Amino acid sequence: MPYSPTPDLQTVVREIAEEMRARPDRGEVATYIPELARVDAGAFGLVVIDADGTVAAGGDADVAFSIQSISKVFTLTLALGMVGDRLWRRVGREPSGSPFNSIVQLERERGIPRNPFINAGAIAVTDVILSGHQPREALGEILRFMQFVAEDPSITIDEAVAASELRTGFRNMALANYMKSYGVIDNPVDFTLGVYFHHCAIAMTCRQLAMAGRFLAHSGRSPSTGYSVVSAERARRINAVMLTCGHYDGSGEFAYRVGLPGKSGVGGGILAVAPGRASIAVWSPGLDASGNSHLGRIALETLTKRLGWSIF
Ligand code: DON
């Protein structure tokens, strides 16, 4: 058999970043949050951090972008830490097969969102984190958790993005009010949405995001600090929800092509987890029809193929 060396991680990451930068098909930047429409569609960043903490970075690895729905992985983690499995009384854990901002299932399912990653589900999870706190305290809790798992206290919220969504987020307002009518939202809708819009507006680089995902890749523990963020069982379960629901109605396609748990955001980021191996963050602002990063998905597909990292 011909000798085929394991490809060097940094070389693979750099090559993929170059290949993606050269592609003309970039998808469409989200415009329904006006502030996101201003982002350069030509940007591309990729960071892989392996079990030893080796960082392989390519392209715009250190440019901050709006993490949007990727924040929902971390709010899910926090809410499970606060109320444990009782969370699943408020929100399901089945794929929705519907767009991220769909309203149609909520009526049939009596205000209980299908999963914690569609907007309705994430708003319900944010409401759990908010309970018993002031919005500012809940938001501080979320931001500090992000800084803790990313091991970087400099992470902040992009206030312009949060304000932009506050002005235009009528669909989310409808979802929240509808859930409130079923008693699924405990707090004033404005408070819950305020916290939700702000945690979606957290700005992070690929490097910071890949750091933040490491506990999910390593059985709930940060390999660098040794801190246990969640139990191994919980990390496994969060990864399972990412695999089945992390890309909304594009989740099947993502699992088919990439073969890793992943969570996308309309800012064009994707956090992907290769269990036991690595945490991966990619960013390319142009989206596909499901609202997931077009080149981000292609880059991850290329990466898992070249490295043999699909979980299947
Ligand atoms: O609520 C929204 O619509 C946005 N703040 C987040 C949506 C999102 O990121 C969907 N992901 N691809």
TrEMBL record:
Catalytic activity: L-glutamine + H2O = L-glutamate + NH4(+)
Keyword annotations of the record: Acetylation, Hydrolase
InterPro entries named among the record's database cross-references: Beta-lactam/transpept-like (IPR012338), Glutaminase (IPR015868)
Matching Gene3D superfamilies: DD-peptidase/beta-lactamase superfamily
Keyword Nucleus (UniProt): no
Annotated EC: 3.5.1.2
Domain of life: Bacteria
Pfam families reported in the protein's UniProt record: Glutaminase
Single GO term (MF): glutaminase activity
Family from the record: Belongs to the glutaminase family.
Subunit structure: Homotetramer.
Name of this protein: Glutaminase
Organism per entry: Methylobacterium gossipiicola
Gene responsible for this protein: glsA
